[in-house]
Amino acid sequence: MAKAADYMDNVKKYDSGASEAVIQKICNYLGIALTNRDSSLVSCSDQTEIDRVVKGFCAKKLGQNASDAQTACEAVCATMKEDRMKSRVTFYYLLAKNSGGLGQFGG
Known about the structure:
This protein is mostly helical. The protein contains five helices and two strands.
């Protein structure tokens, strides 16, 4: 299982007050996706990938409609544009934070 400590530095680059407990819960939510290098990253240039995030995490976990979820993903892509390889944990953390959904992860 992925450990929050492995992702803390990357998440704190965007939110210095990030909670390790929240990050661990996101790691737990992502589970097996974090064991494969390719699936542990989000590609903002791949619309199929973004659609997967919109329909999966944003809609099911955060309760967003497709339009709001798409806008949220675009905003996180813009925030993380300097990172060539975008960590899925950080991406999902920022989606949850921006939508006010960190509470679902104990934040």
